[in-house]
Write a structure and sequence with these properties.
disordered N terminus; about 5% strand; 4-stranded antiparallel sheet; two-stranded antiparallel sheet; alpha+beta
């Protein structure tokens, strides 16, 4: 295994480069603090740069600063996505996980309305201050922290790569490193632009600005870097040197299953999937209460157009194919960038519901069709977790599944057993093709992609293609399958937002026909939920207070 210990990698635990440069962050490196003048003395060889570039991604981007609830970017930041999408619940007191996913109100089957006395938007803003960040109570802090640390580490590598001497085909090796950085910068900007109302464009190592831009501009910068990664890959002439370099940048522990070293063409397909995701995740495509023509009256983004859906169709057609190598992660018993028991939403959900950190939601379970083997293979009803409002659940996620051959397993807490999809996947790409086709009027073609994903994960349910479904019925199958197939991949909240579910019912949003179990064990099957969540988050105070806006762009979402 060539994964590098945390103690030998770049480790930065502050927010943006402005804070990095002036805050006195603890130096935990052997290869040099990325903001210190000794960088050139410490990273001046090919091997040193590889360690620096690997650590900048897997430690700076995905591990540092996440030791509160769970231990990585994939546990807490992605956990908020899962909580707000209502696929998991929680009762831990850490980091506002008990409050951030609680809707404003619900209406039970008997017409009883239960109202949340502490709505999410008020909670988020009450705790968006530096003192709360220090105490682990500001949920806005973590994703920003991770992604700007990732971005700045890539800036450092890009500022250094041309100064290094390489063996073999130096140009191909340098371009592999550059494509690596451009890919991860595109990834970081996509994360920031998809979650926060405003962000910063930071493309020089050790430099900062107060020139906040709206989230759409951040997504544009993500697209720029993803496209630059693709064009840089096209300039590589030595396949062997490319494979050798990328094989060292990707930890060996990740190079199993669908992980590994993608060819140039396969990496380009991964890029196309991410470009398609950037469109879908950041536009509205409302589907509320069975209405495919629903509209949202107050939102921080605009609606998908036919041109947008055609762009998604083009990109996803050239996106990740079945069995393509993708960017994955694996846990290890030690020296990990995420742990087997606390590093992912999946790990924190796996266990009896009375003991797990996250509790599988009844709303997630209702997304399975009757007879779906993924349900029987991954969940049991041996224990019942009781909590007020919406968090009561009869279901637990089984560690390692129940042994059904060929059926997808949602959670495994054994080191190295769970395959974490860090970026795109075949299932995500196929379901984008499905949704684009449905929205463009190609219902049967869209349904065939849904069937394919279900077959790929071993669901064993009857095909929906060829059954004469209306657009509304087909969209119901699509929304159910995205929730089921893409669990613990950091996408669920974006889906709930773009479908309109997270918005106030008064503004055209909400979720209907939900299963909610009361603490008394009463099973309600037709519950109306008005979440009324903040659609794009405010900039965390750790940034906006220390680095005020000089551009006039608001750092607090003005639509809420």
């Amino acid at each position: 295994m060539n994964f590098i210990s945390k103690h030998t990698l770049v480790a930065t635990a502050c927010l943006t480069v402005a804070l990095l440069a002036g805050s006195g962050c603890k130096d935990q490196l052997d290869v040099g603090n990325p903001n210190a003048p000794t960088l050139s003395a410490n990273v001046n060889t090919e091997a040193g740069l590889i360690s620096f570039a690997q650590g900048g991604v897997y430690i700076n981007g995905f591990a540092n600063g996440d030791g509160w609830l769970g231990d990585s970017y994939f546990s807490l930041p992605w956990g908020y996505s899962a909580l707000m999408a209502d696929i998991v619940g929680a009762d831990a007191s850490n980091n506002q996980v008990t409050t951030i996913g609680v809707p404003d109100y619900i209406i039970l089957d008997d017409g009883t309305k239960q109202t949340n006395p502490a709505p999410q938007i008020g909670i988020i803003r009450a705790y968006n201050n530096r003192a709360s960040s220090g105490a682990g109570n500001n949920p806005l802090y973590y994703q920003w922290l991770n992604m700007y640390a990732l971005n700045n580490a890539c800036n450092q590598v890009l500022a250094t790569v041309d100064k290094i001497s390489f063996s073999g085909d130096a140009s191909s090796k340098k371009n592999t490193v550059k494509a690596w950085c451009y890919w991860w910068k595109g990834y970081a900007y996509a994360s920031i632009g998809s979650m926060y109302y405003a962000g910063l464009i930071e493309d020089q190592a050790g430099a900062t600005n107060g020139n906040y831009v709206l989230h759409d501009a951040v997504i544009t910068q993500s697209n720029n870097y993803l496209n630059l990664a693709a064009t840089t890959l096209s300039s590589i002439t030595s396949t062997s040197d490319y494979q050798s370099m990328l094989g060292q940048l990707i930890p060996a522990v990740n190079q199993v299953g669908l992980g590994g070293v993608p060819t140039v063409e396969v990496w380009k397909r991964n890029i196309n999937t991410m470009l398609a995701r950037n469109i879908i995740a950041n536009k509205l495509a409302p589907f509320v209460n069975g209405n495919t023509s629903a509209t949202i009256a107050k939102s921080s983004t605009s609606a998908m157009t036919a041109a947008d859906w055609n762009s998604v169709l083009t990109l996803a057609t050239n996106g990740i194919q079945k069995n393509d190598i993708v960017f994955t992660g694996r846990s290890t018993a030690q020296n990990y960038f995420f742990s087997p028991t606390g590093g992912t939403v999946s790990a924190l959900t796996t266990n009896p519901n009375t003991a797990s950190t996250f509790k599988i939601s009844e709303r997630f379970i209702q997304s399975f069709n009757s007879g779906d083997k993924r349900l029987s293979n991954n969940f049991d009803t041996k224990t019942m977790y009781k909590n007020n409002y919406t968090y009561t659940t009869r279901y637990s996620m089984v560690n390692g599944g129940n042994g059904a051959s060929g059926v997808y397993v949602y959670g495994n807490r054994t080191a190295g057993a769970y395959e974490l999809y860090i970026a795109g996947s075949y299932e995500e790409n196929a379901l984008m093709l499905a949704e684009a086709n449905l929205r463009l009027g190609n219902i049967e073609k869209g349904l065939a992609y849904i069937d394919d994903v279900r077959n790929y994960q071993g669901a064993g349910v009857a095909a929906v293609a060829g059954t004469g479904l209306t657009l509304a019925k087909a969209m119901t199958e699509l929304t159910k399958e995205r929730r089921v197939a893409l669990f613990s991949r950091g996408l669920s909240y974006y889906d709930s937002r773009r479908w309109g579910w997270i918005y106030d019912i008064a503004n055209g949003g909400g979720s209907y026909g939900n299963t909610v179990v009361t603490t008394a064990g009463v099973v309600n099957k037709n519950v109306t939920i008005s979440y009324n969540f903040l659609d794009y988050w405010d900039v965390p105070a750790d940034e906006s207070v220390l680095n005020p806006s000089t551009s006039g762009v608001a750092t607090q979402n003005p639509n809420f």
